[in-house]
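From the pipeline queue, job 12 of 40. The input is one protein chain; the requested action is below.

Action: predict structure.
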Amino acid sequence: MSTPPASVAVTGTGDRGTSKASPGRSGRNRGILIALAFLAPALVLLGAMLVYPIVYTLFRSFYDPSGDQFVGWDNYVTMFTNDSTFTAIRNNIIWVIVAPITCTVLGLVFAVLLDRIKWSTAFKLVIFMPMAISMLAAGVIFRGMFQESPQLGVVNAAIVGVSNWVNGGVSAYPGATPREDAGIVEDHGIIAGQDAVQPGSEQDFPLVRIRAEDVPDKAGQARAAESPGADQISGTVWLDTIRGGGGTNGQIDKGKFGLPGIRVDAVAEGGTVAATAITDDSGRYVLEGLDPGEYRVSLPASNFGEGYQGVSWLSSTFITSVIILSYVWIWAGFAMVMIASGLSAMDRSLQEAARIDGANEWQVFRRITAPLLSPVIIVVFVTLIINVLKIFDLVYVIPPGASKPAANVIAVEMWRVSFGGGNDQGLGSALAILLLIVVLPSMIINIRRFRQEREQ
């Protein structure tokens, strides 16, 4: 049997290998081209909307406000030597520490507790509803709620109402003065009778210069006080004007309102207060238990000041707390829904087994529920960190002008420097790069977490 020449054998083998490899390479190339064709629109959009802005912002951060002169690292040096930037960084740190932890904890508590009640869906809907409100609208709502004036802000209105109730319902009538020959205004705004009186006497106080809105709704027709006893001094405090005019000055006429809630003191010689009374809805009072002697009947200045007006929530001291509270109001529902979804997918047999073994509810939560929910909790927590680092809307809307510097954050500072009057887009670009660097680690953690869950 003859053997073909070696050259022929080699050549034949090479032709067969080439003819088999060529279709495979061409198929792979064709697959790559098809994939690139499908990815091309997304890659173009990604480059135009993400890569190009980042690269250009980095490039712009090395130029002066006009964009003509290269200044190197000057914008970054200015950024870290500016007091407003330090305030923004400090506030961002406060946000990262407080807001995500609070939202995550509340979301966990709501998800676990509401899972045990009958109307859980309705309660979850109520808690989640603020997510449907835009951040701008939520900022307007909270700015209105926390207005300093009790007539405008519901929070201070409630606080003032409770304070007045605790203090015995003493009302305030700012600017009030007595009629001539019916009283005098002493030092520090105290209104007193012109002459000292003895027990068994009456002392009336017709007052004027009181705004109609300061007269309580419960104020009724002024009435003359009943005759006092031997150890009493009585009288009436009333508004000595009639709406629309009429009446006689210094006399209790029909249409004149008594002033309720006014404190009246009987001051003995030496300045000691011997007795105290509060006027009723008709403005009447009775000072009882007085020893024989002379007393000056006076109305303390606390009756005629503005009174307790609540807390300046929108001041520099509390403004960051109010903004964080508004953020928690919105985003606690998001944390609750995310954690509740993880709770619904959890194997409940482990919890039941723990209860059968004698574990109480706290031990079941700490040893079983929380560890099983930890992947979801971490995702929620990191997502909220990313969100608060970019917070802008609430910080821009809620603070009044005087409190804006105290509530400043990096995103607002970036906008202010670039477009809000600063017109320094070089420094604004440097702040944008700082914000990107701060947010990037949290984004990487979240992406890795998603990949690990997908691989599992």
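Job complete. The two ends are 62 Å apart (CA to CA).
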